[in-house]
Specification:
heterodimer; A: 106 residues; mainly beta; 5-stranded antiparallel beta sheet; 53% strand; B: 112 residues; 7-stranded mixed beta sheet; 4-stranded antiparallel beta sheet; 54% strand
Chain lengths: 106, 112
Amino acid sequence: RKEVEQDPGPFNVPEGATVAFNCTYSNSASQSFFWYRQDCRKEPKLLMSVYSSGNEDGRFTAQLNRASQYISLLIRDSKLSDSATYLCVVANDMRFGAGTRLTVKP
Amino acid sequence: DVKVTQSSRYLVKRTGEKVFLECVQDMDHENMFWYRQDPGLGLRLIYFSYDVKMKEKGDIPEGYSVSREKKERFSLILESASTNQTSMYLCASSFSQGREQYFGPGTRLTVT
């Protein structure tokens, strides 16, 4: 089973900022990717899927770059409530990144 | 909504005890998973199951076993608990391989 590596963070940004996280994967045959959000002492919750064509959900955009083997998550207009740890997942490998911690400050 | 439940939120056991962690999902998912999560190490896969009575080792199966007698239930067993098994244990399920996983609330196990 192959590796998934994530930006270590932490990211500390002001409200309203745009922030981006990257996640690289080593298995070129990987097919399915997701981003999860995990709040402190809670379980991970699905944030969004990642498609080759990109995926946008409100302020959140997920992208897949197969040639360079990475996925990204862009958060626009950050809110205080976006503070959490964000995990990338290569689902068919059942492999999670270690997570990137985001703190949005007033 | 998918619902995954775990038998305990917090558990304290002594070294050498046999520990059972239960997980139940209500969405008729084929796949079920057990992970442990430790600070700085992220989620690590212990075992997974893609069908009743089927199981596969993950990255860190040593010291653990699993049981899946019914489709909705996946149990993690620590045969003889040790202090290095103190961790957060998370169960998850998915409709099929490669699909999104849904997590239970986790069991924080302390072995003293």
